Amino acid sequence: MDRQLDEVFNYASDWEKWSDWFEGVYDFKPTTETKKGNGARYAYKAKMMGLYVQVETEIHDFVINKGWVGKVTKGMPNQTQWIFEINDEGTKFTYMLEYKLPIPIIGPLLDKFILKPHWIKIIEKSLQNLNQKLQ
């Protein structure tokens, strides 16, 4: 992104803007008094492959202009990592998602052929949306 690191970080770390650019998530509400940074929790709805689920995520390892880790406390277990770095174009934003599909035997196949490709599309589209919002 051709924007300064602090501008990208401030926009991307604002939970009130997440549903504006992150695909498939909406109706964010803080569930703690802390609304930004370590210990902040957000309840929200997520749409995944036609299913709507309630999710709550807690923020860990929050460092201004560097990133944070989001750990799901309610919903399908997963963890995200948001990393912000300066690069030649301005700012590099990396989003990582870790999860394990809790379905014995067929879980890895469902993940490989259905879930993972779907997640990749969501993340790519979300990053495109973020880039457009910051132009």
Number of E-state strands: 6
**Cα separation of the termini:** 9 Å
| Number of spatially distinct domains | 1
Quaternary structure classification: single chain
SSE run? HHEEEEEEH
Please state roughly what percent of the residues sit in beta strands, choosing from under 5%, 5-15%, 15-25%, 25-35%, 35-45% or over 45%. Answer: 35-45%
Give the overall shape, derived from the CA principal axes.
Answer: globular
Polypeptide structure, described:
There is one protein chain. With 135 residues, the protein is α+β, with helices and mostly antiparallel strands. It has one domain: START domain (Alpha-D-Glucose-1,6-Bisphosphate, Chain A, domain 4). It is built from three helices and six strands; from the N terminus they run H-H-E-E-E-E-E-E-H. The protein has a six-stranded antiparallel sheet with strand order 1-2-3-4-5-6. The chain is globular. The termini are close together. The model has no long low-confidence stretch (mean pLDDT 94).
Layout: helices, strands, pairs:
Layout (H helix, E strand, L loop, with lengths): L4 H8 L5 H4 L3 E6 L10 E8 L2 E13 L3 E8 L3 E10 L2 E10 L7 H27 L2
Antiparallel strand pairs: 1-2, 2-3, 3-4, 4-5, 5-6
